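in:
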């Protein structure tokens, strides 16, 4: 079955209806220039869904925002996930943080939010690939597509009313200092109370959605009720960084990443050579394993070598990767490579050399991270980098016993 088109001409509920009545199995892809979602079907029922470029839909972030796990647990699970290659949901079960049924219930909530969000899309290309299945699903669940259509349609009606009241995306929101309530007595729901706890006069609606543990629709519905009851008001307009807006932000961030990791891998290479001597080939043989894909630009080559990577070639390679997975793929690969190289230094030369290399790497990154602090913070470059070093240190301690 070949099915493709645009949501302007074929509504998302109609697509679901067709796939449900036809008992189809396959993958439905919906995307715009900034969003990309996939929904998997088996015999007409929904079994999985994912957002390829939306961190709020990732399982670990979902559990963290809902207070189900601590940040330390999540970091430990991600490290084990990278080491073992097992799915994150499976890793949570292996760690004893959840049983399989609990992960399944969390995934069910996540999948529902992703699918219900698609009901609000007014445009976007879609295509259905019959017979295909998701490659990285930790577990499959089963949702009745007909029930999803009913609930999604109800949400659409409610969403139309909500959107009439929601504030613009570029204004800051705060709790009203002198609320004028429409009636003598009123009550607020648990969802509204949760939202009030994160409204501080410094966040816009998109930022509230980002940090809210409740998903986009529930967060917007709670804000709608708070605004209608005059409990939340606009405190001002968010200032924008006009300099960043007029530049190619992606290219700026990628340049920072390129410089940061190039410096670090060169620092590792030079310090290892100092310990081993110029003619020892142990480390060059080790780093040669990264000479493919994006990682070939960060092997720790000698200065002046004809193979020394250039930013222009690196940028072209990065941008040949699909935009929805571009940043995640790059950072996951670089974090893995940095961790593996640091651990290898310990295995090759012992704890003294390991500490020396870690010190050198930390010194090397200080200056690059001091530039464009707003972008460093927004893209969590510093957190990711020090997290990788911390994880490598944890592996070394585990090996040492």
């Amino acid at each position: 079955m070949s099915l493709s088109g645009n949501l302007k001409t074929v509504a998302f509920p109609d697509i679901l209806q067709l796939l449900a009545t036809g008992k189809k199995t396959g993958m439905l892809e919906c995307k715009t220039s900034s969003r990309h979602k996939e929904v998997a079907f088996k015999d007409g029922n929904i079994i999985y869904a994912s957002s390829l470029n939306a961190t709020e839909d990732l399982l670990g972030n979902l559990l963290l925002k809902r207070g189900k796990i601590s940040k330390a647990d999540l970091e430990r699970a991600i490290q084990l996930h990278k080491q073992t290659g097992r799915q994150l949901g499976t890793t949570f079960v292996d760690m004893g943080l959840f049983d399989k049924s609990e992960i399944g219930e969390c995934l069910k909530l996540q999948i529902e939010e992703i699918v219900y969000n698609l009901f609000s899309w007014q445009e976007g290309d879609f295509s259905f690939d019959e017979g295909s299945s998701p490659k990285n699903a930790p577990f499959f669940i089963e949702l009745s597509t007909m029930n999803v259509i009913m609930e999604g349609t109800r949400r659409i009606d409610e969403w139309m009313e909500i959107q009439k009241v929601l504030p613009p995306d570029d204004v800051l929101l705060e709790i009203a200092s002198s609320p004028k309530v429409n009636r003598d007595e009123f009550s607020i729901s648990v969802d509204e109370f949760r939202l009030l706890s994160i409204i501080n006069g410094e966040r816009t609606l998109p930022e509230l959605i980002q940090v809210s543990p409740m998903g986009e629709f529930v967060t917007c519905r709670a804000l709608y009720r708070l605004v209608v009851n005059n409990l939340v008001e606009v405190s001002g307009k968010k200032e924008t960084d006009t300099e960043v807006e007029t530049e190619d932000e992606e290219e700026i961030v990628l340049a920072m990443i390129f410089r940061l990791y190039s410096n670090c891998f060169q620092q590792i290479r030079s310090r290892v050579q100092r310990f081993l001597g110029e003619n020892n080939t142990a480390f060059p043989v080790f780093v040669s394993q990264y000479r493919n894909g994006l990682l070939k630009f960060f092997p720790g080559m000698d200065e002046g070598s004809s193979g020394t990577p250039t930013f222009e070639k690196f940028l072209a390679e990065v941008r040949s990767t699909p935009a929805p997975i571009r940043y995640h793929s790059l950072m996951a690969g670089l974090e893995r490579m940095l961790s593996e190289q640091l651990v290898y230094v310990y295995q090759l030369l012992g704890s003294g050399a390991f500490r020396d290399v870690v010190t050198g790497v930390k010194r090397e990154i200080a200056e690059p991270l001091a530039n464009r602090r707003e972008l460093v913070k927004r893209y969590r470059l510093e957190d990711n980098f020090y997290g990788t070093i911390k994880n490598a240190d944890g592996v070394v301690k585990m090996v040492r016993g």
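note: The chain has a mean pLDDT of 81.
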